[in-house]
Amino acid sequence: METPELEIQLKTLPNSPGVYQYYDKKGKLLYVGKAKNLKKRVSSYFNKKHDNARTHLLVKKIANIKHIVVNSETDALLLENNMIKNYQPRYNVMLKDDKSYPWICIKNERFPRVFPTRRLIKDGSEYYGPYTSMKTVHTLLDLIKGLYPLRTCNYDLSKEKIESGKYKVCLEYHLGNCLGPCEDKISAKTYHDNIDAIREIVKGNFKDSLHRFRSQMKAHAEAMEFEDAQRIKEKIEVLEGYQAKSTVVNPSINNVDVFSIVSDEGYGYVNFLQLSHGAIIRSHTLELKKKLDESDAELLAIGIIEIRQRFNSQSSEIYVPFELDLGDGIRVTVPKLGDKKRIVELSERNAKYFRMERFKQTKIVDPDRHVNRLMAQMKSDLRLSVEPRHIECFDNSNIQGTNPVAACVVFKDGKPSKKDYRKFNIKTVTGANDFASMEEVVFRRYRRLLNEDEPLPQLIIVDGGKGQLSSGVKALETLGLRGKIAIIGIAKRLEELFYPGDSIPLYLDKKSETLKVIQQLRNEAHRFGITFHRNKRSKAAINTELETIPGIGEKTVIELLRHFRSVSKVKKASETALSEVIGPAKAKIIIKHYQQTTNEN
């Protein structure tokens, strides 16, 4: 049975690929695992009874769960491998050996060889990968050899030795598998052009190669060589599913600390990724409470110093998302593109996930803190003078001017207060006039609150742009409330927020909590208004001329309107069509009624 702390951690895990780490109560790492969906995988340990005694004992010892979010399942597999080899957790049996994933090496030579390897040697050679499947490596190498014949011998093909005639072409040349650089039958420039093309293939840019494979497969199929066609089809499938680059492992990034930050009104969250020999071996996120409204740069600098001391990091270079001055002895890099940029983005992603999880945990264990933080955030984002503890949102509903109604929904402390919802029948406006309707309902709502001495909201939101906002402002002005209650309009298309007297709208971050609350208010007002409007329209629809026909009752009218959608379509329907819905007897009554009406006219 998990502890309350573990239960909260499980509830707030993300549904993303990543690596999870289990720790005991002393902080010792017990187990590292990978998951396509972290929440489902980790929860499964606690949701079922384990027959395996080792797993049962592991679950009993778990006191804390940490995780690192990555971009894909392949990245998770590679990161799991790195961390198990680095930390050797007690309950991990697999992947503890020194066997590593394969790479493709383009050797640093005058006429480079291209071959698979599990060892990375710092001799200037290029390494691409790692690959989670040796099958992918062999398929790529088969593709490369089919397109660009390369040497496989390990001779020293220096210019002097070739010119002196030291080497002779071998069987590979006569079989067409090598172009004979040992006898200078291909120039170094042409050979290196081929190597450039091979680089594109191993980077994943093999559109032309796939097209060539498909042509070969088609040719084999037309020649009834189905086994050869199937073999090429399998290669195409492997290449199409091939992930060329991994942000988790890159041998060109050596022993670097990566830091990033996300923040809100009260806290900053600094994420740390430690890379050793191009592989992530640690991830940690530090929560820092703001004291004097510090900037992100100030919080990040504090976080970097604390984290490097805590983990005794000796790395001389760090990657950060923006310029920082950390004194002498530390080289600060702000990556602009490529794998270095992607690793900083991965760090930012982990910081964001940590922040989201903290919000979820706070909602569970300390709801007041969550509400206080959200209200402070909304006050800042919406440029209000007070926190919007009580918000009311208005929406009009009418279809082609019929049955105009309006709805008012109420949120208190960021949550719906359904007992305070109100609906309005439009009384003073005829037809589809949204502006006049908005003015009427805003006026009626706050005149009543004033008369009954009920508390007024701190924020009013009207669903619509400048026109509806102006109508709402006019109503408040009539009541003497303008300037006493903040009012804004939200336009549907681009989620623009309009303020009285300001022609330029405010755009909030699409992921901000403030915008999410406003969208929830707007959607709830729309839902509530539409429901009221449909009910009113349905009742009105029944009171049609169909009900005036002798022998036709309410149930029959509802069936007819449900099937034909309108009275005019019922009027035009044939006796046969009517009979299928309400039977021949009633169909004759309706046909006879409309024939008489036509004759009278």
Structure description:
There is one protein chain. Among the domains are: 6-87, 3-Layer(aba) Sandwich (GIY-YIG endonuclease); 257-363, no CATH class; 386-538, Nucleotidyltransferase, domain 5, CATH 3.30.420; 545-599, DNA polymerase, domain 1. It has 20 helices and 19 strands. It has helices spanning 4-11, 38-47, 53-61, 73-87, 134-147, 159-163, 171-174, 188-202, 207-222, 226-240, 296-310, 338-365, 367-381, 434-451, 466-478, 513-542, 554-564, 567-572, 575-582, 584-600; strands at residues 18-23, 29-35, 64-69, 103-106, 114-117, 126-128, 256-263, 267-276, 279-289, 317-319, 331-333, 390-399, 402-412, 415-416, 422-425, 459-463, 486-491, 496-499, 502-506. A hairpin with a 3-residue loop joins strand 7 and strand 8 (267-276). The protein is extended and about 115 Å long. Its main location: cytoplasm.
Summarize the structure.
With about 600 residues, the protein is of the alpha+beta class. It contains 20 helices and 19 strands. Helix 9 packs antiparallel against helix 10, helix 12 (about 340-365) packs across helix 13 and helix 19 (about 575-580) packs across helix 20.
Number of strands: 19
Radius of gyration over C-alpha positions, nearest whole angstrom: 35 Å
Q: Write the CATH homologous superfamily of the domain at 386-538.
A: UvrC, RNAse H endonuclease domain
Strand content: 15-25%
Number of helices: 20
What would the average pLDDT be, to the nearest integer? 81
Structural class call reads alpha+beta
Please give the share of residues in helix: 40-55%
CATH architecture classification of the domain at 386-538: 2-Layer Sandwich
- Calculate the terminal CA-CA distance, rounded to whole Å: 81 Å
Q: How can the largest sheet be summarized?
A: 8 strands, mixed
CATH topology of the domain at 386-538: Nucleotidyltransferase, domain 5
